[in-house]
Amino acid sequence: MIHVSNLTKHYGDFQALKNVSFDVAKGEILGFLGPNGAGKTTTMRILTGYMPPTSGTVTVAGYDVTTDSLEVRKRLGYLPETVPLYPEMTVWGYLDFMARLRGVDKRERRIDEAMEKVRIADHADVMIGKLSKGYRQRLGLAQALLHDPEVLILDEPTIGLDPRQIIEVRELIRGLAQDHTVILSTHILPEVSQTCTRVLIINEGQIVAEGTPERLMARLKGAERIFVQLAGADGNEARRLFQSMDGILAVDDKGNGAYEVECALGTDKRPEIARAVVNRGWGLLELRPVGMSLEEIFLKLTTE
Ligand SMILES: Nc1ncnc2c1ncn2[C@@H]1O[C@H](COP(=O)(O)OP(=O)(O)O)[C@@H](O)[C@H]1O
Ligand SMILES: [Mg+2]
Questions:
Q1: pTM for the full model?
Q2: Which of 20, 40, 73, 204 fits a disulfide with 185 by CB distance 3.0 to 4.6 angstroms?
Q3: Residue 270 is part of a domain; what is its CATH number?
């Protein structure tokens, strides 16, 4: 459906994309995961024909984005990072304006369908300035759907939303994915595991990993790590104690009674650690699993 081949993008001297290649099949929900500045928005702008690449090619349903941009745009709906909305327009007025701008056929029906799909029809006459962030994002999705595109390209669709709105927008996206191929970008890891069928991880303009969310998580989680904070313990004795326990692979002494303990995958050594510590008569101030930050994940993936 979409072929991206050897994309590069220079902004002056700065190279934002370095030989990015990937394919997207019909029906996929592809997640584009990467930290801020990775090149997600740049890639999406090139895919949607809003900006030319420095080199490389993008085709959508066989049409080249630089030479056949009109054919490509017919097939793509785009939710940009910030949707240009006009606060003094109503929801319906804005969608009508966008539909006219795009020369959409059977305008009223298409607007009704788009509003229905993102569940905003009951807000048709509300002024955009009065909409919550969650509803603005729905309106952004509605405008992307107006011309009934095969592919939806959504740039950080849940950014700036509160937790409840995030859940609502994710559900909407999963629903839309039944009729559309979806590419979405995010810098939040749980987003891709909850929404996407496949993930591309991008860092500093390069794709550093690719796979299903499950496979990537398994690769990342070679081991489980636990943070332990003790009080009144002898440092050497504590370290020896942890090292002597079954299923503990490594002990990292953080100083001041703090340790990071690496356990074999799929084991939870917390009850055992708690018992052993209390048996020694030491204080146990903290005992918690250590989640990997996105930075650590990228480091791990890029140094493998
Ligand atoms: N118009 C521009 N001019 C110069 N540099 C830019 C421009 N747009 C983006 N960049 C730079 O390109 C890199 C990638 O940006 P972007 O694609 O927006 O990343 P992301 O969406 O992953 O946060 C960043 O370092 C950013 O500062
Ligand atoms: Mg961005």
A1: 0.79
A2: 40
A3: 3.30.70.100
